[in-house]
Known about the structure:
By secondary structure, this protein is of the alpha+beta class. It has two domains: about 120 residues, Diaminopimelate Epimerase, Chain A, domain 1 (Roll); about 150 residues, Diaminopimelate Epimerase, Chain A, domain 1. Helix content is about 20%, strand content about 35%. The chain contains six helices and 17 strands. Helix 2 crosses helix 6 and helix 3 runs antiparallel to helix 5. The longest helix has 15 residues. The N terminus is likely disordered.
Amino acid sequence: MEINERAVGAPDVLHYTAFSSHPEGGNPAGVVLDASGLDDAEMLAIAARLGYSESAFLTGPPEELKELVGEPGRAFTIRYFSPQAEVPFCGHATVAASVALAERIGPGDLVFATRAGTVPVTVTGEADGTLRATLTSVEPRVEEIASEELAEALAALGWPSADLDPLLPPRIAFAGARHLVLAAGSRERLADLSYDFDRLAALMRKLDLTTVQLVWRAADTVFHVRDPFPIGGVVEDPATGAAAAAFGAYARELALVPAESVLTLHQGEDMGRPGVLTVTLHAGDPKVWVSGAGTRMPR
């Protein structure tokens, strides 16, 4: 289906990047602030034409969400489409949509109804004019992965098990979407990403994974991450908010960081689109906060 975003009657498709204040950094997303006239096939077609890892489509909220924000017009239903399928939750497209909204209705609190649950977001303005969005995850969970499925993941990636960091054991983590967390033992291992696209996609469908979160620990609370995303039709996601939230839950569950922590995740450097994701954990609260800057991109 061919959709021209400039055609009369076509939706206005905005282009934003998340987790960077520069258009050439972070993770691009298409944003449609009024998708009320689009059906599923049309949203998927727009996402496929854009070719970004995900695009966000906003419509009016469920009635109960309107009461969660103090003023009208700041609650929405949001759906996310990759070039190949709908996904339940996408952090970077949420940040992109939130920044786009803040430019139009002002910074402040927003709330989104997603397929994964309710996601509050707060947008603040910094002294240099940069807008920063902080999302609160749904309640996360962490589970083990079977040895045969881990072996298949490593085979698809072409990673020998000896290249893993034994201090960060493999797990599947969820904070709106499921991600397999695998830790590289060196920055060189993380940088060398050449995998079997179809083989990894097949395993991810079997395990209902959205991405594979590949990480390398640079310091106590500083990590470099990469996210293969073959089930979305994308080799690699440049900056992945949903995976960052899942990783925060993983790090806390395994006591890899203090219960009260701020983690810095660097992503996209190996793709030439550097971005920074900030993950905040609060003692006594199971949820995870993910924040980052966002900015509009030229069409």
